[in-house]
Design goal:
30% helix, alpha+beta, 3 helices, globular, Alpha-Beta Plaits
Length: 90
Protein backbone atom coordinates (compact mmCIF):
# COMPACT_ATOMS: atom_id res chain seq x y z
CA UNK A 1 0.00 0.00 0.00
CA UNK A 2 1.17 3.50 -0.81
CA UNK A 3 0.77 6.32 1.69
CA UNK A 4 0.98 10.04 1.04
CA UNK A 5 2.31 11.63 4.19
CA UNK A 6 1.95 15.35 4.82
CA UNK A 7 4.48 16.38 7.44
CA UNK A 8 4.02 19.71 9.17
CA UNK A 9 7.25 20.82 10.81
CA UNK A 10 6.43 21.86 14.37
CA UNK A 11 6.81 25.59 14.92
CA UNK A 12 7.23 25.78 11.12
CA UNK A 13 10.91 25.01 11.75
CA UNK A 14 12.64 22.53 9.43
CA UNK A 15 16.01 22.69 11.22
CA UNK A 16 15.32 20.00 13.87
CA UNK A 17 13.98 17.66 11.16
CA UNK A 18 16.93 18.08 8.85
CA UNK A 19 19.37 17.85 11.76
CA UNK A 20 17.90 14.52 12.93
CA UNK A 21 17.84 13.21 9.36
CA UNK A 22 21.49 14.19 8.91
CA UNK A 23 22.51 12.58 12.20
CA UNK A 24 20.29 9.47 12.27
CA UNK A 25 18.86 8.91 8.80
CA UNK A 26 15.24 8.26 7.90
CA UNK A 27 14.63 6.02 10.95
CA UNK A 28 12.34 3.78 8.90
CA UNK A 29 11.91 0.19 10.09
CA UNK A 30 12.67 -2.73 7.79
CA UNK A 31 9.72 -3.21 5.45
CA UNK A 32 8.83 0.49 5.11
CA UNK A 33 10.08 1.92 1.83
CA UNK A 34 10.68 5.58 1.06
CA UNK A 35 9.50 6.37 -2.49
CA UNK A 36 9.94 10.13 -2.92
CA UNK A 37 9.33 13.49 -1.26
CA UNK A 38 8.79 17.17 -1.93
CA UNK A 39 9.01 20.19 0.38
CA UNK A 40 6.96 23.37 0.03
CA UNK A 41 8.77 26.61 -0.83
CA UNK A 42 8.38 28.01 2.69
CA UNK A 43 10.07 24.90 4.20
CA UNK A 44 7.07 24.33 6.46
CA UNK A 45 5.73 21.03 5.07
CA UNK A 46 7.04 17.89 3.44
CA UNK A 47 4.96 15.66 1.18
CA UNK A 48 6.36 12.16 1.34
CA UNK A 49 5.33 8.99 -0.45
CA UNK A 50 5.98 5.80 1.50
CA UNK A 51 5.14 2.16 0.78
CA UNK A 52 4.52 -0.80 3.08
CA UNK A 53 2.34 -3.88 3.36
CA UNK A 54 2.11 -3.36 7.15
CA UNK A 55 0.56 -0.11 8.44
CA UNK A 56 2.15 -0.76 11.86
CA UNK A 57 5.57 -0.05 10.32
CA UNK A 58 4.37 3.35 9.16
CA UNK A 59 3.10 4.10 12.68
CA UNK A 60 6.47 3.03 14.11
CA UNK A 61 8.26 5.41 11.74
CA UNK A 62 5.88 8.25 12.65
CA UNK A 63 6.59 7.71 16.35
CA UNK A 64 10.30 8.33 15.64
CA UNK A 65 9.48 11.83 14.41
CA UNK A 66 6.29 12.90 16.20
CA UNK A 67 8.11 15.10 18.69
CA UNK A 68 9.16 17.49 15.89
CA UNK A 69 6.63 16.74 13.11
CA UNK A 70 2.83 16.55 12.92
CA UNK A 71 1.53 14.01 10.40
CA UNK A 72 -1.42 13.56 8.07
CA UNK A 73 -1.59 10.09 6.48
CA UNK A 74 -3.51 9.26 3.31
CA UNK A 75 -3.62 5.80 1.73
CA UNK A 76 -3.34 6.43 -2.02
CA UNK A 77 -3.45 4.59 -5.32
CA UNK A 78 -1.92 5.60 -8.64
CA UNK A 79 -3.93 7.59 -11.18
CA UNK A 80 -3.79 4.54 -13.45
CA UNK A 81 -5.35 2.37 -10.73
CA UNK A 82 -8.02 5.00 -10.10
CA UNK A 83 -8.85 5.17 -13.82
CA UNK A 84 -9.23 1.38 -13.92
CA UNK A 85 -11.64 1.48 -10.98
CA UNK A 86 -13.71 4.27 -12.50
CA UNK A 87 -13.71 3.03 -16.11
CA UNK A 88 -16.70 0.65 -15.73
CA UNK A 89 -18.85 3.66 -14.71
CA UNK A 90 -17.83 5.87 -17.65
Amino acid sequence: MLYMIVEHFKNQDPVPVYRRFRDRGRLAPEGLQYVSSWVDEKLERCFQLMETADRKLLDEWISNWSDIVEFEVYPVISSQEAAAQVSPRL
